[in-house]
Amino acid sequence: DAKTTQPTSMDCAEGRAANLPCNHSTISGNEYVYWYRQIHSQGPQYIIHGLKNNETNEMASLIITEDRKSSTLILPHATLRDTAVYYCIVRVEQDDKIIFGKGTRLHILP
Amino acid sequence: DTGVSQDPRHKITKRGQNVTFRCDPISEHNRLYWYRQTLGQGPEFLTYFQNEAQLEKSRLLSDRFSAERPKGSFSTLEIQRTEQGDSAMYLCASSSWQSNQPQHFGDGTRLSIL
Question: Of the candidates B35, B41, B55, which has its C-beta nearest A102's C-beta?
Fold first, then answer.
């Protein structure tokens, strides 16, 4: 079973920041937090991952709480093309398979 | 395009037929994964290769399913005697051998069983 809990769906206005929460209260010290997204009819796309420090790349920012029990993915200026299902995953470094939950369906509203 | 490539993108077949899908990973990646995704669900892990060695198989991979990666490059997934329940999207992903590297996915093969 997935070790994360995410809201089923969220809406965000185009141009605003989209903040997607994820709870992972049972995360272990050696587990990373990964985010993927899946646009309709495409395969999952890797976004970002982190262990305990906040991370930023060209797609998004990942904010991990100090106790590591939750995190937030931030899309700074959402566009219509960001409409997708977003998956939050915890994964140990040595674990080769990804266990997906049902994710959050993000709707960007024009 | 240097991403993960899957062929075909769509496959429609009658129940009882055999089907084979192909996955070409990113060229420098030595790890290759197969997942299955049904409507409204996240992808589910099926099996994983490191080079040509198949290192892990999910209980979802019944004896009708077989995967190969003979030369450590492309991989094939075969389903024999297909059943209605095999209708799904079959996704392939690859990653490098270095630890903690993300998996990169192809766009999948959608299988429909009539």
Answer: B41
